[in-house]
Design goal:
The structure is a single chain. With about 450 residues, the protein is α/β, with parallel strands linked by helices. The protein has 2 domains: about 5-335, ANL, N-terminal domain (Rossmann fold); about 340-435, ANL, C-terminal domain (GMP Synthetase, Chain A, domain 3, 2-Layer Sandwich), CATH 3.30.300.30. Helices cover about 30% and strands about 25% of the residues. It has helices spanning about 5, 20-40, 40-50, 70-75, 110-130, 145-160, 170-180, 190-200, 225-235, 345-355, 395-410; strands at about 95, 105-110, 135-140, 160-165, 185, 215, 235-245, 250-255, 260-265, 270-275, 280, 285-295, 305-310, 325, 330, 335-340, 340-345, 360-370, 375-380, 415-420, 435. Strand 3, helix 6 (about 145-160) and strand 4 form a beta-alpha-beta unit. It is globular, with a radius of gyration of 23 Å. About 40% of the residues are buried.
Amino acid sequence: MSQASVDRHPASQPDFLPRDALRQLQSSRLRDVVRRAYDHVALYRTRMDELGVRPEQIHGVEDIARLPLTVKNDLRDTYPFGMFASPMRDVVRLHASSGTTGKPIVAAYTQTDLDVWAETIHRSLLSFGFHKGDIVQNAYGYGLFTGGLGIHYGIESLGATVLPISGGNTDRQIMLMRDFGVTAICCTPSYFLHILDRAEETGVDLRALPLRVGCFGAEPWTDAMRRRIETAADIRAFDIYGLTEIIGPGVAAECFEQNGLHVFEDHFYPEIIDPDTLEPLPDGAQGELVITTLSKQAMPMLRYRTRDITSIHVESCPCGRTIRRIHRVSHRSDDMFIIRGVNVFPSQIETALLGVEGALPHYQIVLTRHQDLDHLEVRVEVTPAAFSDRVGAMEELRGKISRAIEHTIGLRTAVRLVEPHTLQRSEGKAKRVVDQRNL
């Protein structure tokens, strides 16, 4: 099947709508979703009343900047069901974030929402060159995480064969990939690198298998990592973008050009704002991505601040799609960082350290990259008494700190113990994170 025939698959037709027709559709859906949010979500009704904005004053996407912004804490403050615009009898599924920094973020879906989600994943996979004859190994985690089930139903919508293996058990992943003749895989890019390393250790050459294409997302990854994946496995590697608060994966996806991610903006309207002034920025300017759901029923989001820093391409894409593209996300406007698919905040590290006797609340997080894998080292000052020459004492303390951090963030980290006053102090905001990954 040629790329042109894949692109013009009936499911992909919204990707090629004339801009005028797309804008009319966006404006109609925006009016409906604003009315729904105002009528059924107390937070939005209060915010709009405070701004003096009524739903009937929103005529189209040209008025979207008049609407209030939404942030992640709004979802935490209204936990669990305060952002729902549908009664529970119409909610057919719930997903949630890990909740490692407090209450989890809850996402709700009506059956129509799930149909839209399957549609956007279907369109994503078509843009990567997936097709009905593929056997797709879905190694995203299943459960409350949106990745596994979100991708799953898109694969089924495509008509391909899905292997719902979830994450982990890498030897089994490789065995089934080989035995089942898997032609496509979906997982985080860092996990696929682990699969590559393990395959090499066990003498399996992925380049000799039928595997030809991969859908990778849920964490930032570089073009250098893409090149390594494509060379080592002899596949095409594509980026997919999404977030729990909006719907999950399938908000945007690359095409064969691999030059930015097309936003499915018939369902998700993108804006770029200045993260400091909150003022809208024009296409081409770098800033924070803000997304409004245009068709979400159970949990509409008005101008949600993703904290992801990107820009919207100003030039058209050679693939012919008319939906706009965003550049691949390089970093966030807040202090969160992601290591091997795990979201980590410096405050979590501090919480873990404060629970270990002998550790001081002076620490530094150093992020490095080696062979396209991210590594985290926590340098910790310890009390003079703890900084002892007694045989085994330092190793015992290092082990306690390492276990405390792993228990808090769910990730094993390297720990280096240093003497008091070793780490640089600051009179202003402490620089807790030293990022040497050159993302």
